Amino acid sequence: MTTPFPTSSILPEQGPPLRVPMTYFLTGILFFVFYSVMLIVEGGHLFDFYLASKTVASVHLLTLGFLALVMIGALCQMVPVICGKPVLPPRISLGIYAAILCGILLLVWGVYLHHVLLIRTAPVFLVTSFLFFSAASLRAVFKSRAFSKTAVGIGVSVIFLACAVVIGAGLAFMRTGFFSYVSHPLFFQTHVAFGILGWVGVLIMSVSWQVIPMFYIAPSYGRQFTGGAIFLCLLSLLLCVVALFGFWSSLSYIGICMLAFTVLALNPIYTLKILSRRKKTLNDPTLKFWISGLICSILSFALIIAVWAFRLNLPVAFIGWLVVPGWAMFIIHGMLCRIMPFLVWFHRFSSLAGKTPIPSLKKILPYEKINISYILHISALIVGAVSFLAHFSSGFRVAGVLMLLCSLYLLNIGVYVLRFKDPYS
Out of 1.20.210.10, 3.30.230.10, 3.10.180.10, 3.90.650.10, which CATH number does the structure's domain 7-418 have? Predict the structure, then answer.
């Protein structure tokens, strides 16, 4: 397993201490565990109605709890490397973590119990912490001398994050009786699009431009392609924001479709094409996560087109299953299996290279553990997908058990890699 970054050009001082990203990662995985337990308890009832309290609560366990925490933890480490500028000092990073954690817990419990005070308090923590992080990330990106395509993409993704959080705060207050005059469906679909496709999708797309050629010895993405993809994302952002102020649902649909096409179809297809032209085959189990996630992405976009054009009778939650536990979580899961062992090696052993025997990345995290983690994830995804298609409610509990095993195993991987200590500590 090669290192995720060219370590000769980076120093541990460029990024935060190991405890910062690992705190985000392990807490995010715990929310993955919580979602799995909720799926076991609720079964298929979790997908009865997209605005039901238990549905909204469970979705945010994954999107805010797992995806957002893991991605922010990764950005705390990646932005200093890519841009040469730290995002935030360690204490402030952990302060933001605490505020996000409080906001997530308040929101999930408030929505699940329909507790008005909790729902109204949660946005205070979430909006403050996410906007502060977004502003710090944008400052690091735009003050960077290395104004790379990945850096620009990261900047665009955190703009989507800021917008999604502000709109989400408005939706939280609408749920408790405020702003009832606002066009709720328009704000809801924009919030979902900005949160999943804009924040998560654009970030995955931007990071893929950096890591796919680096990790898997594949050709680089063309400058015209990456520039065009960023332009489409910015244009979709502009169209959706204008639509919100003008209450033009048709303009919003155009912007969301453009964003979905870019992150769910265009970039995944181009990425699979690049992977097919790799210079040599690597025995790297994390590649399976990328390929599976990209296939889920393309399939979900194809189903969106089929539902819209041919009136295909499919539950919206099925597409959501392919997008979140499939596309987004597959790729994030695979990246965690890459990043966690590397961070342990980088912070604890890289300075000892050539001075004393040190463990390799494969020693810190054996391929067998990554393969087991992949099997559990794809099994849960398949069982859940079959349960949707067969209308088999109890099947979701089986998927929940598999997801619980997967999340606990991923948590075990995080604890396992941390056991490797600096021999001089």
Answer: 1.20.210.10
